[in-house]
Fold Putative secreted protein.
Amino acid sequence: MRSPSAALGAACFALGAALTSAPGVAADPGAGHMYVDHVAWAKWGDMSSLRVYPTDAARALARQPGTTPQADQGWAEVLSLSPDADLPGMREQFLCHWTFAELAEPGKTSWNLEPWRPEVTPEVMVASGCNPGGSEEPF
């Protein structure tokens, strides 16, 4: 059994590889969205949050290693649904949620991405639970 620090190191390595890979191709408009059911912008005080509602297929894949191409496809689907989500740090938050949300909090209603969060290293992203720069919003 690996120690917690070894497991965290392996997780950071996997997330780092995902974050540094090239963005995937855009979703095929005729095929529908395989990984993102819908998105919705919400306000938390004066701060915005993009709620990403993953499909069951995304949730199942997110539990498995080696799904970076599918995560990139999911991000392309987010951008096709909300082009204004293409902001610094948002893709990295999405990839972090893809990698860890279904392990840390299975079935969470939405993966919430905030443009006001700072860009950070993969290690800080993981250590912050995909929410660098502050606590998770209460919705």
Remarks:
- Residues 45-128 form one domain.
- The first helix runs from residue 4 to 20.
- The radius of gyration is 14 Å.
